[in-house]
What we know:
This protein is of the alpha+beta class.
Amino acid sequence: MKCKNCDSEKTHKNGRDASTGKQVYKCRDCGKTFTDTTQPSKIKARGVFTKDDIRKLHDVDYRVLEARKNLKKNEFIEKDELIKRIGLRPGYPRLSATIDSHKEYFGRADSRIYWSHPEEIKELKDEGTFT
């Protein structure tokens, strides 16, 4: 990416623009920062949201429900991977209570929690592999 100020090729990534989500670059020669204007905006216009946008941003239970839809048979993911997929950090307030309300989608083996399709979880619980 060439610097928009001095045309130098010596640029590096420098985070994202909070208002647009576009990649920000910084020039090593002149020190100026600039965004990649060829990228589409990753964030909706400020102040304009749908109900689903609000749920995706603020409703942890909704995010878990959306992640559940993508669980496939014979695929198991650990709790930390689920947390990453829904975009939360471990220790997020209310996370344990939210996750515990989806018992048919996870099982415990030793000290690990695995998520999968409910039929897979039920089979392993029936066998005694999961608690």
